[in-house]
Amino acid sequence: MPGESRPTRNGREAGHVSMSRVMKPVSSSTRSVPENEGARVCRTRKGGKERRYMSDILDTLKKNEEIARKFLKVELVLNLANTPSKLLETVLRELETEFNIPYRWFTLVQHTGKNDLVARLAMTESLKEQVGILDEASFLEILSGNTATVLANDNLRPFYKLFPKTRKYFLKSIAVVPLFLDGVLIGSLNLGDASPERYYPGMDTSLLQQLAGKVSERLERLLIPPRKKSDRSGSSLDCTSPDSGASES
Length: 249
What we know:
alpha+beta; five-stranded mixed beta sheet; two-stranded antiparallel ribbon; 7 helices; 7 strands; disordered N terminus
């Protein structure tokens, strides 16, 4: 009959609609989370953060180990230099090779008399282009009384005095590592970069200072004659000769 619902195979009318199809589902935002499930979610999130934290620590340790290995490699090569000029050239070359530092140069303090290192180095022409000369007063002003590494990535104009006479570096950060010879400040090893994030105040410079110490030690061995002292019998003993057992660093 027209308008009459016809039964289906399972006995329901064709016009019958299941109540499950018209009931509005409960919103997930209003669904209560069992207490044990919430605790599990919190533990999962906390565990994920801890794993990421540990992963970051391991990555940092690996990077530091790699940096330390490169510094050690540079230090070992220093022993191959048999003249002061070759020593300085070796330092600059190896720093570029191992660390890809774009701006590397030395600055020497202009002393007088026997302390005039510039005259004693007998620098090659190529090395002269990578060495700046500065009077002691100006040098000490830049260091601001520090004997440790000076780091800066702002207000760099005062550091321009350290540049070699024929060079200009477009740097945004700098590390100035003082060098000493027999206890006397002789200059600095300078590293610069176009990025302000390469060198910045507060960063760890222990490996840089260690390298500077090795450079100073090697330079002292190449420049200063072996010291002698008298034994009880009155004869002289060479304290720095290979036969005396002194180690070469």
